[in-house]
Amino acid sequence: MLPATLEFPAAVVLVIGGAVACFAGYRLFRVVLAIYGFILGALLASSVMGISNHAGMIVAAIAGGIVGALLFTFAYYVCIGLIGAAMGTLLLHIIWDYAKHTEPTTIAVIIASVGGAVIAMALQRYVIIVSTSFSGAWTIIVGGLALAGNREAERAAAAGNVWILYPFTPATGRWVVILWFVLGLTGLAVQTGMTGKKKF
User: How far is the C-alpha of 144 from the C-alpha of 16, rounded, in Å?
Assistant: First the structure.
């Protein structure tokens, strides 16, 4: 969590980082990994510091962000596997919720995670394009809402956790889900067009 004075720059970083991921995620995948690694590292490191220690939180966020960016950048194939596992788990939760209106079982989550990771490694190009398009789109939306004064989005931007506003939660409004889907498809189309003639 970052001090309130840094919520605006955090939102700007999310919008810019989300745009890079959404529209050039495959071509700049290592850059995207560094961006999200920095966000995650900053979140984890700053959360260790006390809320009143603003200077310590900033230093911890920067140091943790750098470490996270380096880890994500050099762990290229591990990150692809993790992305696939996350996508598999997310898809399972969506389907399970609509079908049974309950949380999926542990066994189902494990199977979905492993299956997603295996598929991601086999279809790296497509997984990278789809995951960066839609995660980047959601990051743009969270940052944009924060810039517009949405309090939930401001907290998400300051925390660096772009999934605090879960895209299928009714509280966010149906228009947010539609915008996320349209923006993600736009990013998907742009990236597919940019990389269509390139061999993986």
Answer: 10
